[in-house]
Amino acid sequence: MPRAVREQxxxxxxxxxxxxxxxxxxxxxEIAGLAGVSKPLVYLYLNSKEELFTACxxxxxxxxxxxxxxxxEPGLPADRQxxxxxxxxxxxxxxHPDGWSVLHRQARTHGEPFAAEVMAMRxxxxxxxxxxxxxxxxxxxxxxxxxxxxxxxLAQALVGAAESLAGWANETPGVSAKEAAxxxxxxxxxGLENLMNGRPWQPPNRAGDRAT
Length: 212
Prior knowledge:
By secondary structure, the protein is mainly alpha-helical. The protein contains nine helices and no strands. The radius of gyration is 21 Å and the shape is elongated.
């Protein structure tokens, strides 16, 4: 069997084991057994448990980013691109629950260098969503009033909500990717549309409130 194919089999087994058992509890013996190879072969190909986990994070992160980018069809209005991108995100996380667990739970809770790998993926998705929100603002009016910082903050909030909702959807029986994406669009797009059309929500001015 070609080395690349064998290595992917080991990583498939590793993602499943790390995702279901956690990084600390997962053993190289278990990963080797699930992959149908010897433990020395796993070490020969992937060097150490830490390097194997890092390789899994990178593979799963790339797959998720590629799925979101492929899902957001270029040429559509910005809201349709966001909708199709969200559907692709929730479809991918539902179809790869162990990979999502590796990214969203395991990598973030075990410090560096794992957390940095996930943050690089998240930054890429946030940048993509920032572009969609900015495009939507330009579609709404030619001289968008949304400052860059507001657009960036909205993208961060939307991605954070998507991450939390994916965890909930994967743990709640009967929730489809389409339903999860629609939930987030209903939560976010009405507010975004108002904001981009000059109708932002304003905090109440009450006596005693301090300006910030």
